[in-house]
Amino acid sequence: MSCDERAEFEARWWWLAAPLLSRPGNDRRTEHFARLTLAHIERDSHTTRDDAWADDVRELLIRFGPEVSWTRRPSLYLTASDPVITGHERVPAFHFVPASHAFDDPGAARPEDWGLYDRRPDEWYAPAYADRFARLEGQWAAFRRGDSCTFVAAFDASRDPTLGHQAARAALVLARNERSLVISARETHLDGPEVLTAISGCDRQLASLEIVPATARWVARTRRGIEPPGPGDVSDLLVLDATDSLAHDLASVLPHVLPGEQVPVGGHLRLFWEVSGLAPAGEPVTTSLSVTAQGRAWLGRAAESIGLVGRRRAVELQWDEVLQPEGGVAPRVLDVDLSGLAAGRYRVTLAVSIGGGVPVTATREIELVRR
Prior knowledge:
The protein has helices at residues 3-17, 27-41, 55-64, 100-104, 250-253, 298-305, and strands at 67-73, 84-89, 132-135, 138-145, 148-155, 167-177, 180-189, 194-201, 205-213, 218-226, 238-240, 262-264, 268-276, 283-293, 315-323, 329-337, 344-354, 360-369. By secondary structure, it is of the alpha+beta class. It has a domain at 230-371: Immunoglobulin-like.
């Protein structure tokens, strides 16, 4: 690489490896510089085991950090010799560098691209402020507003008894690159479902949902790419709770957004979306919606064939209407009866055709669960 290419590579590497994008600075990068400094200081010294400093010791220090404690035991040899000394780095430590997939295309990154608990990492780092990084589940969606987009992230940290009912700071971070960050944060108490929103450009970008408690030593986060709808497209689908409400636009449905993708078996699926690109006077729109079962493993198919579990069916709807935009978009809320579907994973597909044009689609995966 040229010097400029190397600088660009390094900037992206440290951006994606930062433990918290909502935290000022980048403590993972600072830790790396601290390790380099310590290696420079100790280059003419001996280790605790009285070994001479060498390249292998330097590499271990830079990859895994300095030893912070030591244990010793007698030599295994019968003849007299020095005790065996073992050094220990700070633990627990985590692997914050993502997979190459996320590095190559952050806008298409998946939460599993960050293997924080990789059993055989190439490097690790133990932040002084956290002994645990919990996986945070949530529901994500984006809605176009002219040249900008409103991003929605719903979550419920109280589902984890070790996280819930604590004072904390929750943040939604949007980043098109390492130089462009949008942070929406608030102080909260993790007692139930919550929703964070942020406004940013409508580019594909990296989104990070992060929770840092006021006093405890844990962090909850999830990080993924997100691609907003284009001009004239249907928005993302939002899954709402099925309680009675008069919610009809994005602002009024936010308190009803489910914090995940699980819906009770035998109930109703309430969906919200927006249609953009309509003529101000209104246009005829054809909408179709399907709820189809995802592939089941061979054991599940065998149980279906002998009647041990019910067969999962599909739901299909289609209707025509004339939509008139309000503020550039036409919001829609729909209740779908799922009483005929068995427990399992399903894909919800919405297709919208404006004035007989090519349909545009939005999808959302849900899981029907028994409660």
